[in-house]
Amino acid sequence: MAVYAQNRKARFDYDILETFQTGIVLYGFEVKSVRAGRVDLKDSYITVKNNELWLLNAKIYPLQPKN
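-> structure tokens emitted (67 positions)
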């Protein structure tokens, strides 16, 4: 599985006790933006609801249209 975005600073700011490898559901335009590196995980975090992991506060910026 390819890694397109990482919050490297989180390993310095927090003690990581456990890691998970998961997938994520995205729309087509979001996939293109993530592959282009237009994602920000700086203030994002994971929460568990109903035995599911939820990514909150992640920012996926739209691609600029090419003229």
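The helical segments are 10-13, 28-35.
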